[in-house]
Amino acid sequence: xxxxxxxxxxxxxxxxxPAFAHGDMxxxxxxxxxxxxxxxxxxxxxxxxxxxxxPFTTYEANGTVGKQTDLLVGDRVVIHAMKxxxxxxxxxxRLVHPHK
Length: 100
Known about the structure:
Strand order of the largest sheet: 2-3-4-7-6
CATH class: Mainly Beta
Mean pLDDT: 81
CATH superfamily: Nucleic acid-binding proteins
């Protein structure tokens, strides 16, 4: 029974778009559809979320330390973001290039 509850809890967290995450941060998960300057658009289930990439944002690309220029349209991402000036602002970006 505990195993079923654990599986359901993980499924609910995984299937949600922007969802409650660590402390005051949100998870923004999905596929990058647009990058304009320091704003990335992430789509999941037909819903778009814009996230500001800040100078303090850290990146992980395919399991290694990355940088903002590693982020490409088509990448799948999990972004830990916080509200700053009314906008989602990335603290960390984890990305996987679909071709790797």
